Amino acid sequence: MALALGLAQRGLGNVAPNPAVGCVIVQGSIIIGRGWTQPGGRPHAEVCALAQAAASAAGATAYVTLEPCAHHGVTPPCAAALIAAGVRRVVSATTDPDPRVAGRGHAMLRTAGVEVVEGVLGSEARALNAGFLSRVTLGRPWLTLKLALTLDGRIATAAGASRWITGPEARRAVHLMRARHDAVMVGIGTALADDPGLTVRDLGIARQPIRIVVDSKLRLRPDSALARTTSEVPVWLCHSAPARPMTGVHLVGCAADAVGRVDLADAMRRLGAAGLTRVLCEGGGTLAAGLLEAGLVDELVCISAGRVFGAGGAASVAALAGVALAERPDFHLVEHRRLGDDILHRWQRVKPFSG
User: Fold this and answer.
1) Catalytic one among 46, 67, 282, 293?
2) Among 23, 157, 260, 277, which has the minimal tally of Cβ within 10 Å of its Cβ?
3) Is 334:119 a contact under the CB 8 Å cutoff?
Protein backbone atom coordinates (compact mmCIF):
# COMPACT_ATOMS: atom_id res chain seq x y z
CA MET A 1 0.00 0.00 0.00
CA ALA A 2 2.89 2.36 0.68
CA LEU A 3 4.10 1.77 -2.88
CA ALA A 4 0.59 2.42 -4.20
CA LEU A 5 0.47 5.72 -2.30
CA GLY A 6 3.80 6.70 -3.81
CA LEU A 7 2.45 5.99 -7.27
CA ALA A 8 -0.72 7.97 -6.54
CA GLN A 9 1.33 11.09 -5.80
CA ARG A 10 2.32 11.19 -9.47
CA GLY A 11 -1.22 12.22 -10.31
CA LEU A 12 -1.39 15.27 -8.04
CA GLY A 13 -2.04 18.37 -10.10
CA ASN A 14 -2.85 16.32 -13.20
CA VAL A 15 -6.12 14.50 -12.63
CA ALA A 16 -8.77 16.95 -11.36
CA PRO A 17 -11.65 16.58 -10.80
CA ASN A 18 -10.71 12.93 -10.24
CA PRO A 19 -8.79 11.59 -7.25
CA ALA A 20 -5.11 10.67 -7.57
CA VAL A 21 -5.10 6.89 -7.07
CA GLY A 22 -2.37 4.26 -7.08
CA CYS A 23 -2.74 0.51 -7.57
CA VAL A 24 -0.30 -2.37 -7.12
CA ILE A 25 -1.19 -5.95 -8.06
CA VAL A 26 0.72 -8.77 -6.37
CA GLN A 27 0.84 -12.48 -7.17
CA GLY A 28 2.44 -14.24 -4.23
CA SER A 29 5.43 -12.05 -3.39
CA ILE A 30 5.89 -10.67 -6.91
CA ILE A 31 4.55 -7.35 -8.16
CA ILE A 32 2.91 -8.05 -11.51
CA GLY A 33 1.18 -4.72 -12.15
CA ARG A 34 1.48 -1.07 -11.14
CA GLY A 35 -0.60 1.92 -12.13
CA TRP A 36 -1.71 5.42 -11.20
CA THR A 37 -4.42 7.75 -12.45
CA GLN A 38 -3.30 9.23 -15.75
CA PRO A 39 -3.41 12.91 -16.76
CA GLY A 40 -6.97 14.12 -17.18
CA GLY A 41 -8.22 11.36 -14.90
CA ARG A 42 -8.28 8.50 -17.43
CA PRO A 43 -7.43 5.68 -17.46
CA HIS A 44 -7.79 4.88 -13.78
CA ALA A 45 -5.02 3.35 -11.70
CA GLU A 46 -6.64 -0.10 -11.56
CA VAL A 47 -7.01 -0.27 -15.34
CA CYS A 48 -3.34 0.62 -15.83
CA ALA A 49 -2.20 -2.00 -13.31
CA LEU A 50 -4.46 -4.69 -14.78
CA ALA A 51 -3.08 -3.99 -18.25
CA GLN A 52 0.42 -4.72 -16.94
CA ALA A 53 -0.64 -7.81 -15.03
CA ALA A 54 -2.67 -9.22 -17.96
CA ALA A 55 -3.70 -12.87 -17.39
CA SER A 56 -1.49 -13.11 -14.30
CA ALA A 57 -4.06 -11.00 -12.39
CA ALA A 58 -6.22 -14.10 -11.86
CA GLY A 59 -5.99 -15.04 -8.18
CA ALA A 60 -3.86 -11.99 -7.32
CA THR A 61 -4.20 -9.30 -4.65
CA ALA A 62 -4.75 -5.66 -5.65
CA TYR A 63 -3.71 -2.84 -3.33
CA VAL A 64 -5.66 0.33 -4.15
CA THR A 65 -5.41 3.69 -2.38
CA LEU A 66 -9.12 4.48 -2.85
CA GLU A 67 -12.20 2.30 -3.11
CA PRO A 68 -12.57 1.13 -6.74
CA CYS A 69 -15.31 3.03 -8.55
CA ALA A 70 -18.67 1.33 -9.07
CA HIS A 71 -20.37 3.64 -11.59
CA HIS A 72 -20.38 3.82 -15.36
CA GLY A 73 -18.83 7.08 -16.55
CA VAL A 74 -16.42 7.62 -19.39
CA THR A 75 -15.16 4.10 -18.65
CA PRO A 76 -16.73 1.01 -16.99
CA PRO A 77 -16.39 0.58 -13.20
CA CYS A 78 -12.96 -0.39 -11.92
CA ALA A 79 -14.60 -2.78 -9.47
CA ALA A 80 -16.06 -4.65 -12.45
CA ALA A 81 -12.65 -4.69 -14.16
CA LEU A 82 -11.02 -6.25 -11.11
CA ILE A 83 -13.75 -8.89 -10.93
CA ALA A 84 -13.46 -9.68 -14.64
CA ALA A 85 -9.68 -10.08 -14.31
CA GLY A 86 -10.15 -12.69 -11.60
CA VAL A 87 -8.51 -10.74 -8.78
CA ARG A 88 -9.02 -12.74 -5.59
CA ARG A 89 -8.41 -10.06 -2.95
CA VAL A 90 -8.62 -6.24 -2.87
CA VAL A 91 -6.97 -4.20 -0.14
CA SER A 92 -8.13 -0.58 -0.12
CA ALA A 93 -6.96 2.36 1.96
CA THR A 94 -10.19 4.34 2.27
CA THR A 95 -13.78 4.56 1.08
CA ASP A 96 -14.62 6.93 -1.78
CA PRO A 97 -17.17 9.50 -0.48
CA ASP A 98 -18.43 10.27 -4.00
CA PRO A 99 -22.18 9.48 -3.81
CA ARG A 100 -21.83 7.40 -6.99
CA VAL A 101 -19.44 5.09 -5.11
CA ALA A 102 -19.58 5.47 -1.29
CA GLY A 103 -19.24 1.77 -0.44
CA ARG A 104 -20.79 0.42 -3.64
CA GLY A 105 -17.40 -0.53 -5.06
CA HIS A 106 -16.54 -2.62 -2.04
CA ALA A 107 -20.03 -4.15 -2.06
CA MET A 108 -19.76 -5.07 -5.74
CA LEU A 109 -16.47 -6.85 -5.09
CA ARG A 110 -17.79 -8.76 -2.09
CA THR A 111 -20.93 -9.81 -3.97
CA ALA A 112 -18.67 -11.29 -6.65
CA GLY A 113 -16.77 -13.31 -4.02
CA VAL A 114 -13.70 -11.08 -3.85
CA GLU A 115 -12.18 -10.70 -0.39
CA VAL A 116 -12.05 -7.00 0.59
CA VAL A 117 -9.84 -5.50 3.30
CA GLU A 118 -10.43 -1.83 4.11
CA GLY A 119 -8.59 0.91 5.98
CA VAL A 120 -4.94 0.02 5.33
CA LEU A 121 -2.92 3.28 5.60
CA GLY A 122 -6.22 5.11 5.49
CA SER A 123 -5.06 8.35 7.10
CA GLU A 124 -2.17 8.60 4.65
CA ALA A 125 -4.53 8.02 1.72
CA ARG A 126 -6.98 10.66 2.94
CA ALA A 127 -4.15 13.16 3.37
CA LEU A 128 -2.94 12.52 -0.16
CA ASN A 129 -6.41 13.04 -1.62
CA ALA A 130 -7.43 15.89 0.68
CA GLY A 131 -8.32 17.99 -2.36
CA PHE A 132 -10.67 15.42 -3.87
CA LEU A 133 -12.25 14.75 -0.48
CA SER A 134 -12.73 18.47 0.15
CA ARG A 135 -14.43 18.98 -3.20
CA VAL A 136 -16.77 16.02 -2.67
CA THR A 137 -17.62 16.72 0.98
CA LEU A 138 -17.48 20.54 1.09
CA GLY A 139 -17.96 21.51 -2.52
CA ARG A 140 -14.70 23.46 -2.64
CA PRO A 141 -11.04 22.71 -3.31
CA TRP A 142 -8.44 22.17 -0.62
CA LEU A 143 -6.64 25.48 -0.16
CA THR A 144 -2.96 25.78 0.70
CA LEU A 145 -1.74 29.25 1.66
CA LYS A 146 1.99 29.69 1.00
CA LEU A 147 3.91 32.52 2.66
CA ALA A 148 7.57 33.33 1.98
CA LEU A 149 8.51 35.64 4.81
CA THR A 150 11.26 37.10 6.93
CA LEU A 151 11.95 36.18 10.53
CA ASP A 152 9.71 39.07 11.61
CA GLY A 153 6.83 38.00 9.38
CA ARG A 154 7.30 40.43 6.48
CA ILE A 155 6.78 39.65 2.79
CA ALA A 156 8.22 42.90 1.37
CA THR A 157 10.29 45.89 2.43
CA ALA A 158 8.77 49.28 3.18
CA ALA A 159 9.59 50.22 -0.45
CA GLY A 160 7.71 47.16 -1.73
CA ALA A 161 10.72 45.03 -2.73
CA SER A 162 10.09 41.29 -2.34
CA ARG A 163 12.41 39.48 -4.78
CA TRP A 164 13.95 37.42 -3.48
CA ILE A 165 13.28 36.91 0.23
CA THR A 166 14.07 33.19 0.10
CA GLY A 167 16.88 31.31 -1.62
CA PRO A 168 16.97 29.12 -4.76
CA GLU A 169 16.26 25.87 -2.91
CA ALA A 170 13.07 27.32 -1.45
CA ARG A 171 11.97 28.75 -4.77
CA ARG A 172 12.46 25.35 -6.40
CA ALA A 173 10.31 23.77 -3.68
CA VAL A 174 7.56 26.30 -4.42
CA HIS A 175 7.63 25.39 -8.11
CA LEU A 176 7.15 21.75 -7.13
CA MET A 177 4.20 22.79 -4.95
CA ARG A 178 2.68 24.58 -7.95
CA ALA A 179 3.08 21.45 -10.05
CA ARG A 180 1.12 19.40 -7.50
CA HIS A 181 -1.84 21.77 -7.44
CA ASP A 182 -4.58 22.30 -10.00
CA ALA A 183 -4.32 26.07 -9.76
CA VAL A 184 -2.22 28.91 -8.33
CA MET A 185 -4.06 31.92 -6.91
CA VAL A 186 -3.06 35.52 -6.17
CA GLY A 187 -4.93 38.72 -5.45
CA ILE A 188 -5.06 41.63 -7.86
CA GLY A 189 -2.73 43.62 -5.59
CA THR A 190 0.02 41.05 -6.06
CA ALA A 191 -0.73 40.77 -9.79
CA LEU A 192 -0.36 44.53 -10.26
CA ALA A 193 2.65 45.03 -7.98
CA ASP A 194 4.74 41.98 -8.93
CA ASP A 195 3.46 41.10 -12.44
CA PRO A 196 4.05 37.37 -11.78
CA GLY A 197 3.95 34.58 -14.33
CA LEU A 198 2.84 31.90 -11.81
CA THR A 199 4.16 29.04 -13.94
CA VAL A 200 6.16 25.96 -13.03
CA ARG A 201 9.74 26.44 -14.19
CA ASP A 202 13.01 24.49 -14.24
CA LEU A 203 11.46 21.12 -13.33
CA GLY A 204 10.94 19.68 -16.80
CA ILE A 205 7.18 19.59 -16.24
CA ALA A 206 4.95 20.30 -19.24
CA ARG A 207 1.60 20.57 -17.49
CA GLN A 208 0.97 24.00 -15.91
CA PRO A 209 -1.57 24.86 -13.20
CA ILE A 210 -4.40 27.23 -13.98
CA ARG A 211 -3.55 30.77 -12.87
CA ILE A 212 -6.27 32.50 -10.84
CA VAL A 213 -6.48 36.17 -9.88
CA VAL A 214 -9.02 37.40 -7.33
CA ASP A 215 -9.83 40.60 -9.19
CA SER A 216 -13.09 42.13 -7.93
CA LYS A 217 -13.16 45.04 -10.39
CA LEU A 218 -11.36 43.35 -13.31
CA ARG A 219 -8.27 45.54 -13.10
CA LEU A 220 -5.75 43.06 -14.56
CA ARG A 221 -3.72 44.94 -17.15
CA PRO A 222 -3.83 43.66 -20.75
CA ASP A 223 -0.03 44.02 -20.94
CA SER A 224 0.61 41.99 -17.77
CA ALA A 225 2.62 38.76 -17.86
CA LEU A 226 -0.56 36.83 -17.10
CA ALA A 227 -2.73 38.45 -19.76
CA ARG A 228 -0.04 38.14 -22.43
CA THR A 229 0.29 34.38 -21.95
CA THR A 230 -3.34 33.22 -21.74
CA SER A 231 -2.90 31.22 -24.95
CA GLU A 232 -0.13 29.22 -23.26
CA VAL A 233 -1.54 28.75 -19.75
CA PRO A 234 -5.15 29.49 -18.72
CA VAL A 235 -5.93 32.56 -16.60
CA TRP A 236 -9.13 32.76 -14.57
CA LEU A 237 -10.36 35.98 -12.95
CA CYS A 238 -12.68 35.75 -9.95
CA HIS A 239 -14.64 39.01 -10.03
CA SER A 240 -17.71 40.61 -8.46
CA ALA A 241 -18.07 43.62 -10.77
CA PRO A 242 -20.18 43.29 -13.94
CA ALA A 243 -18.36 41.30 -16.60
CA ARG A 244 -16.77 43.04 -19.56
CA PRO A 245 -14.91 41.62 -22.55
CA MET A 246 -11.35 40.53 -21.71
CA THR A 247 -9.45 38.71 -24.41
CA GLY A 248 -8.18 35.26 -23.52
CA VAL A 249 -9.17 35.12 -19.84
CA HIS A 250 -11.89 33.00 -18.26
CA LEU A 251 -14.21 35.07 -16.09
CA VAL A 252 -15.61 33.53 -12.90
CA GLY A 253 -18.45 35.71 -11.69
CA CYS A 254 -18.76 35.59 -7.89
CA ALA A 255 -21.02 37.06 -5.25
CA ALA A 256 -19.85 40.29 -3.63
CA ASP A 257 -19.20 40.80 0.06
CA ALA A 258 -20.50 43.77 2.06
CA VAL A 259 -17.97 46.17 0.52
CA GLY A 260 -18.17 44.88 -3.04
CA ARG A 261 -15.14 42.62 -3.04
CA VAL A 262 -15.26 39.00 -4.13
CA ASP A 263 -16.95 36.78 -1.57
CA LEU A 264 -14.12 34.30 -1.12
CA ALA A 265 -16.30 31.45 0.13
CA ASP A 266 -18.49 31.79 -2.96
CA ALA A 267 -15.40 31.96 -5.18
CA MET A 268 -14.06 28.73 -3.72
CA ARG A 269 -17.40 26.98 -4.25
CA ARG A 270 -17.39 28.09 -7.87
CA LEU A 271 -13.85 26.81 -8.34
CA GLY A 272 -14.94 23.49 -6.88
CA ALA A 273 -17.91 23.37 -9.23
CA ALA A 274 -15.47 23.96 -12.10
CA GLY A 275 -13.61 20.79 -11.10
CA LEU A 276 -10.66 22.14 -9.13
CA THR A 277 -9.54 20.05 -6.15
CA ARG A 278 -6.28 21.70 -5.00
CA VAL A 279 -5.51 25.44 -5.04
CA LEU A 280 -2.22 27.02 -3.95
CA CYS A 281 -2.58 30.63 -2.85
CA GLU A 282 0.51 32.80 -3.21
CA GLY A 283 -1.30 36.09 -2.69
CA GLY A 284 -0.37 39.01 -0.49
CA GLY A 285 -1.40 39.91 3.03
CA THR A 286 -4.90 41.12 2.15
CA LEU A 287 -5.94 37.95 0.35
CA ALA A 288 -4.28 35.81 3.03
CA ALA A 289 -6.27 37.59 5.74
CA GLY A 290 -9.52 37.25 3.81
CA LEU A 291 -9.07 33.53 3.33
CA LEU A 292 -8.15 33.01 6.97
CA GLU A 293 -11.12 35.08 8.15
CA ALA A 294 -13.45 33.04 5.97
CA GLY A 295 -12.10 29.76 7.37
CA LEU A 296 -10.95 28.62 3.94
CA VAL A 297 -7.28 27.88 4.62
CA ASP A 298 -6.79 24.15 5.06
CA GLU A 299 -3.01 24.17 4.98
CA LEU A 300 -0.45 26.88 5.72
CA VAL A 301 3.08 26.62 4.33
CA CYS A 302 5.54 29.18 5.68
CA ILE A 303 9.06 29.46 4.30
CA SER A 304 11.14 31.62 6.62
CA ALA A 305 14.34 33.35 5.54
CA GLY A 306 17.08 34.69 7.80
CA ARG A 307 16.20 38.32 7.17
CA VAL A 308 14.53 41.10 9.13
CA PHE A 309 12.65 43.96 7.42
CA GLY A 310 11.22 45.70 10.47
CA ALA A 311 7.81 47.18 11.22
CA GLY A 312 7.79 49.24 8.03
CA GLY A 313 7.71 46.10 5.88
CA ALA A 314 4.54 44.57 4.48
CA ALA A 315 2.94 42.08 6.87
CA SER A 316 2.48 38.52 5.62
CA VAL A 317 -1.15 38.62 6.80
CA ALA A 318 -3.21 41.80 7.01
CA ALA A 319 -5.38 42.59 10.04
CA LEU A 320 -7.99 39.93 10.85
CA ALA A 321 -10.80 42.37 11.48
CA GLY A 322 -13.67 41.30 13.66
CA VAL A 323 -12.31 37.84 14.49
CA ALA A 324 -12.33 37.04 18.19
CA LEU A 325 -9.43 35.14 19.73
CA ALA A 326 -11.50 32.02 20.23
CA GLU A 327 -12.54 32.11 16.54
CA ARG A 328 -9.09 32.59 15.05
CA PRO A 329 -7.90 29.59 13.05
CA ASP A 330 -5.63 27.11 14.80
CA PHE A 331 -3.12 24.95 12.94
CA HIS A 332 -0.93 22.04 13.98
CA LEU A 333 2.55 21.37 12.66
CA VAL A 334 2.80 18.44 10.24
CA GLU A 335 6.23 19.03 8.67
CA HIS A 336 9.36 21.12 8.97
CA ARG A 337 12.58 20.91 6.99
CA ARG A 338 15.52 22.95 5.84
CA LEU A 339 15.73 24.35 2.31
CA GLY A 340 19.23 25.73 1.94
CA ASP A 341 19.38 28.60 4.41
CA ASP A 342 15.60 28.76 4.73
CA ILE A 343 13.15 26.78 6.85
CA LEU A 344 9.85 25.35 5.59
CA HIS A 345 7.15 24.59 8.11
CA ARG A 346 3.80 23.17 7.04
CA TRP A 347 0.69 23.45 9.19
CA GLN A 348 -2.83 22.08 8.81
CA ARG A 349 -6.08 23.17 10.34
CA VAL A 350 -6.83 21.56 13.67
CA LYS A 351 -10.32 20.78 12.37
CA PRO A 352 -9.94 19.78 8.71
CA PHE A 353 -12.91 19.71 6.32
CA SER A 354 -14.84 22.28 8.33
CA GLY A 355 -15.80 25.86 7.65
Assistant:
1) 46
2) 260
3) no
Q: What is the dihedral of CA 46, 47, 52, 57, to 10 degrees?
A: 70
pLDDT tens digits, residue range 299-352?
999 999 988 888 888 888 888 876 666 666 789 999 999 999 999 999 998 865
The sign of the dihedral angle between the CA atoms of 222, 224, 230, 235 is negative
Whether 62 and 69 have beta carbons less than 8 Å apart is answered as no
**67 assigned to active site:** no
Element (H or E) spanning 181, and its range? none
Q: Which residues contact 353 (CB under 8 A, 6 or more apart)?
A: 133, 134, 137, 138, 298
What sign for the dihedral angle of Cα 130, 133, 135, 139?
Answer: negative
Which helix (H) or strand (E) is 278 found in, with range? strand 278-281
Using a pLDDT cut of 70, give the percent of the chain over it: 95
User: What does the alpha-carbon distance between residue 175 and residue 20 come to, in Å, rounded to a whole number?
Assistant: 19
Adjacent-strand bridge partners of 236: 212, 250
Task: Enter the pTM of the model.
Answer: 0.91
